Amino acid sequence: MLLLKASTPVYDEDLFDRNGILNTRATKFKFETLAKQTLSSGSFCELTGFEFTDPASISYFGITPGNISAKLNTHVRLTFTKPVNSYHVPHTVSIDIVPVLRIDKWWPEEARKKELCTAGECLIVFTQPQSKYPWIGWTKPCGFISFARAESRLLRDCHLIAKAAYMVLKRMSENFCQYKFFSSYVIKMALLWCLDEEDLSKYRSSDSSDEVNGDELLHLIQKILRCLLRFAAQDYVPTYFMPKCHQPVWLGERYLKQYHMRLYQHGLTYKDFFSLNEQQWQDEVLRYIKVLFTFSHVMYWSLLSDADDLKLFVLSTINPLCENSYEDSDDTM
Length: 333
What we know:
The protein is built from nine helices and ten strands. The protein folds into two domains: 24-146, no CATH class; 151-332, no CATH class. By secondary structure, it is α+β, with helices and mostly antiparallel strands.
């Protein structure tokens, strides 16, 4: 994360503070307003054949959404008003839009793998980071460094087996049981880290083959799942291009290291889930963490052969105030 300062003594006081620091929250809100005005116009509907719907304006059972401007992206829905290739399309198209800043020839000092990026793929996103990092003061108008374009391009350019593994894990994470585990972003990070390994680097580039070898696919899926469980054990995802930038692991985590903080408050590790006392069992968050911990391992174990050992990916101690790194400290069942 970083602060953006005006390079000239004259600047828009609605978007910059008295010190010339860009107010990313105000800028993002201004962008959302202008974008929605454009999408709502009659000319947009006439020229594109789309009708705009703002999901944030819809209330469900009388409940209105919360602070939408605190989110990274603005979610919009577009409905087809004209047939496509003579066919009526009944479903809507969901799109996320977000304002970003691109600085030519700029590259963060702590970033890695510059050779895998092309010009314009390192962006500064206007966001309010306190939703994921609540210890940052709300008065700090930070920008977030994003490599989303490079990450998406690397995924598109991957071997067909890598793409298939990504899609399979997305489905498994959403549909293995009644709980959802990992977001598509976290799965993408695990895949990219796995492709750095020597025996998996061959899947980094595409080839002309349109066939997927089942054994190779299973091997890669197992590797990615192990990486995901290591992320879960340490309770943060190191982003691929900037490992010191950490993201939450679980889809249900509201902020970084929320689950480790809850375990730490109770003096627990993941191993202690199998012997919770009555008071601890009353904690709804602890029960939910146990469910995610258990079923995510079951999802991984379901892909193993009868000869494989069943391992728990856990840390011996949990301290959310330190950077806990998982280093093969798993236990065999």
